[in-house]
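User: Hey, my collaborator sent me this sequence without any context and asked if I could get a structure. I don't really work with proteins. Can you help?
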Amino acid sequence: MGILSWIIVGLIAGWLAGELMRGSGFGVVGDIIVGIVGALLGGFVATALFGVPDPLTGIDFTTIIVAFLGSVILIAILRALRGARV
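Assistant: No problem. I've predicted the 3D structure and written it out in structure-token form, which is a compact way to encode the shape of the chain:
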């Protein structure tokens, strides 16, 4: 997947995860970074637990869902590490 695809999927996944998780947010750049790292985390989890071969291939619904779930997991980990703020 090209860098532009990673940025687009990261933006979408990070924004969706930020909306779902509610809170102070990370800003536009932070959401992109959380989305990209979340996509990597989601891809790893999808491959390790469910045996999905190459879950991050381009911009499609499955890739966005995997990246979104990874982003939600990442936000939960980040909030647990720094303490939740409402």
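In plain terms: The chain is about 75% helix and 0% strand. You can pass these tokens on to your collaborator as they are.
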